[in-house]
Write the structure tokens for this entry.
Amino acid sequence: MLLLRLPPAEADGVLARLDAERGDRLRAHMQRFQQAPPPPEVVDQLLNDLDRILREQASPAPPPPEPPSADAEAPADAEPEGEEQAPPAEAPKPKHAGDPLPDETAIESDPLAALREMSGAGPAHGTANVDRLASALSDEHPRTVALVLEQVDPERAGELLKRLHPEMRRQASVQLGKEVSVHPDLIIRIVRTVLAKCRKLAEAPPAATSNRFKRMAEMLRRLDKPDRMEVLAALEQNDPQAASQVKEFLYSFDDLLLIEDRSMQKLLAEIDSKSLASALKGASDPIKEKVRSNLSKRARETLNEEMELLGTLPPTTIQQAQRSVVEVIQRLDQAGELTMLQ
């Protein structure tokens, strides 16, 4: 993509410096991209990543720390030689200690392995790391999200997709269906950057930003629906990322209590029984009663049986099921298909 944007003479000069086999491969790629160019946003993302790579390579590496001198005096509180030394103090554990984050050495040496380890399943891997990955990807380009999803197994990629905002999920899925040749070194650098963002999220969650979006959502909830939709449309046009964050707070599972019965019946028809049963496991009694009262007798019996069969569910499973219900509430309300009680 870079060579195609250079003047022909300069592109030929670059190709002349490469071995013949690689030059031929690049020319074939250039010809293919000329006939079927990738979307402009993909090209912009690749060129921006290339610019970042070149800047990183141009930056001098920090000098390694000098080893202590052999004749340097030992500190006054050093243990006498031969005596058993106390073990080093344990480093403070990060939040979500059950979900270990890859350390900086692992991210630098093998980011792909660190990504797969971080997104793995099993008792040693809870859902906090998957949530962090989803948060780190939330403001990335959909093509970048797709590249990261391609590096993990389908089950974990599906878990990540479920945690993304619906619009990002849709765009990333579109990118997954496209065949775009990306150099392995670029993939490694992208994954390394995403993992570094995950570490920052774990160390300093953006509480202030979340509070700002929460306040905006509370203000919008007090507007009449036409005015609220108008503000959201303007926000989506000027700052789609901010709009998606506001929507996360604009709707909640408790909104089920505010939905008029006919609209409630329409909503329930769009939610599968297993997801609804999982969501109600952690619901208040008024919400359970509101849902049951808007189901037919047979559907109500099926729901009760489903809830009994599920047994005890982990909180994260309940939260994910409730989030899927909230997404349906959001979609139907924005389509004008829900009536809320005043």
In short: Confidence is low (pLDDT under 50) at residues 69-98, 121-125. The chain has four domains: 2-37, 104-199, 206-250, 252-342. The CA atoms of residues 272 and 325 lie 10 Å apart. The chain has 19 helices and no strands.
